[in-house]
Structure formats: C-alpha cells, structure tokens
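Supplementary Methods, section 5.1.

A reviewer requested that the exact input to the structure prediction be made available. We therefore reproduce it here, unchanged from the version used in the analyses.
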Amino acid sequence: MEQPSPPASLPKYLAEGLPKQDTETLDEVQRYIEALIEYRGQSVGINELPETADPVDEPDNAENGTVVKEKVTCGDDSCKCTSGDPADMHGPYLYRYYRENGTMKSEYVGKPGSE
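The structure derived from this sequence is encoded token-by-token as follows.
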C-alpha cells in the first residue's frame, strides 16, 4: 500500500511534517483535530454573549448558534442611541451568535415576529 497523498488545501509544512511523525503522535494529532472540530461547532454559551443579548428560542433558520434579541446602536453620532441607554437604542433585533474558526461571530436574523 502506498502512502496516501495529502489534500491539496493542506499547508506545505503540514503535508511534509505529518508523514515524519510516529504513529502515537499521529493518534494525538487526530484526537486534537476531532476536539477542535467539535469545539468550533458548539453553540456560543450564554455567559459568552454581550450583556445586552437576550436569548430566545431558535427560529428555523438559526442553524448552529444561539439566537438572541438585542438592542443596538446605529453608529450615527448624532443619534440618541449612542447614549448607551437601552431605552434610546434601536430594536430589538434577532442575531445569531456562532463560532467560525474558533472566533465568535454574529449575524442579523431579522426582527422578532418576522420569521
């Protein structure tokens, strides 16, 4: 049996370095990769969300992640929303918080009741 070829997307330093490792190290690398994939697929925990985020039941289009209602500022310096007072902020809007490559990200889902 021939040694398998690495995927074309694998960086050169890994494609050249992995075949040089012993079987025990390769098993450890495999466990690490599986744990990393599982970590990246997890929903964002409630304690990781911004203080202004209010978790809600996930709408059908939520996929992976945690859907929240959140009031936001618009970024216009002349708008009263920049005061930081939740009563002056816009929304609430629905956002989905999720992980991508280990980084927490969010995306706009819609207005509550607009699903």
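Residues 46-110 form one domain. These observations are discussed further in the main text.
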